[in-house]
């Protein structure tokens, strides 16, 4: 992929243009089956049915800056094929204008309501089935146990344990300079960064954005797939628990960590506290998105997460 190639695909792409684009890559789709999903920050997503009645997912990049991450995602998915107890996308089309793969079985734990900025739950999030927690813990343990050296050789981005804090500190400084951070929150971050006891002595292959909309389950609530690997890399394993803490709370996160450890996941004494601290630094992620994307659509959300605006 030429990551410098200019994207001329409209956003949102019209059905006629998408049909023509798919045909260029050997996909004969039924245009009356197109279902658009505009919730992704980096990609427009369309579900469609092939003329042979198979179901496909089409991802259309929204901006040129997402293309390097798509290249990393491609390497991660190639590396992970048939290595996990859950399914991952198997890209059949990979091009600067279009990514396409057969739809995975299962239902997302939640869909995102962009108008109200909330989840629409497909699984009872207030009474999560035990099999969901157990299977998610097993899937995460298997992911985090992948051979980091082999992943690096496959081209996956790698951060060593000693790099985690320096990378995050640099990101914090950039966000502070360009957007700002409340003084009390900034001090909390610095205390966390300077305390060795919070931090892992190892790194693992992480999904990087494991939120409810990216987790698939079967009819019994057993996790059977992970979607959207754009942020995957060798990094801090705690990253994959942050959205779980935000969505389901501390008690569920504790149970998930127990299931993770039981399945062979590597934990450390202050891991839960560390996850809380990563949650408190979520404003860095949103702030970086605002700066990298060049859009102010999420600036208010970033300022709220950075303690500069009252929460709605």
UniProtKB/TrEMBL annotation:
Question: Per UniProt, what is one Pfam family of this protein?
Answer: APH
Provide the protein name. Phosphotransferase
Looking at the UniProt entry, the stretches that span the membrane are none
MF terms per GO, please?
A: transferase activity
> Would the keyword Transferase turn up in this protein's UniProt record?
yes
Q: Which InterPro entries match?
A: AGP_Transferase, Aminoglycoside_PTrfase, Kinase-like_dom_sf
**Domain named Aminoglycoside phosphotransferase: residues:** 37-273
List the keywords (alphabetical).
Transferase
